[in-house]
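Protocol step 4 of 6: structure prediction from sequence.
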Amino acid sequence: VTSQHIIAAKITALTEEWEEVRELNDQHFSPDANSELSQRELQIAELCQRELQIEEELEALRQQLSSESEAGTGDSSDIDHVKMILEQICITNESIRELEEYFNNHGSHSARVIDKVLKRNGVDQATYFKGAIVGNHCMTFAQKGNQIYSGILEELEPIIENASLKSELRDFTERMKAIVAVWYKVQRVIKSTEKQSIESINQFEENTNQLRILINKICKDDVPISGWKPRLTRSLKAHLLFGGHLLRQLRVWGTLGGIDEQNIESAHAIWNKLLRQFGATRGKELQMKVLSDYLFQTASFMHNGIAHVKKEMKRNLKSSAATRRTAPRREDGDDTIVEEEQCAGVTISDLASIINAEVALHPELYLTEEDQESSGAQPTKVSKEDTMIHMCTERNCEKLRLKLALDIHRYESHQILPVVGDSNAGPES
């Protein structure tokens, strides 16, 4: 089939060339036997000769194509056999492609061991950062570096049969422990929000230089594992640390963690919560409300003031409780404590009169079946009188209750059953 396609392509190209030659001959050829052949006439003669040559080539290609077609027409069983072989080849190639993709994505046993040991020590790898260790997990990894590398060595050493590889693994583990120990000291200064002393800053410089030496040694000067070709990182953070920029910043300001953006990461959650809370507003008004509420929540003097108010309230409550314990009892045997109840310089009885005089506080209501939380309950009317405050006059009780609750109080405290139709269980204060 491929041969037939090649021949057909040649026939097409030659046919197009033959048509161009014929067109040129028809336009420019004018024979004159008496005149000498000019240069143009020579070109026309060459074109005619090329036309005859193309016709011969076309005829030869057509015969070749015809013979190829006759040779390609075989038994149907041969064609089916070829189709079967082609199908098997396609399936095999697809299987090879899938297996190669699986092999490239396959995680080795050592990778699974490392992941298990890291999780056992509280260190997680960020999936969306290609397995990198980020955030506070870096500090945890550095803090527990000795345990992590010892755990990895305990897991992998029993399954390694090569003695030289075991020796290289032990050497690599000990050297990584030393690197992580120095790294932890450096991180503690970087994360600290306190002002560092001159001694601490000088120690930070010494630890940074030592960390640089250890990393260069394990990656370039003395690689512990044969065949391993590690590369030094070119990240901006490594440049800031080993290039002396962080050290200069530390000497100028005395702190690195105090001006680190990680200290305000918690503000994102608070800010997003406030945006949802004030979602009904838009534009500058939304920004103003969110910002003012955020400042209110994070202002230290506001929290100090709230703590002071709570402390004073507890003190007043303790004083009030002591007054109740030492208050005189009633002579009639009632256990009710005699005390003068006041609220902001106003007696409770005067406050009750003020409340009863407020018309807006005493609307007429209808309690439905849903309000009463009882199936089959009839709608109940609540009058203005029921929402007013009354005083209990039984045995000099003088307790103030709503009209709705006064009958309950008289029954529970004085064992007096409510009188049906009695709308004046107690005089209005």
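Step 5 (inspection) to follow. The chain has a mean pLDDT of 75.
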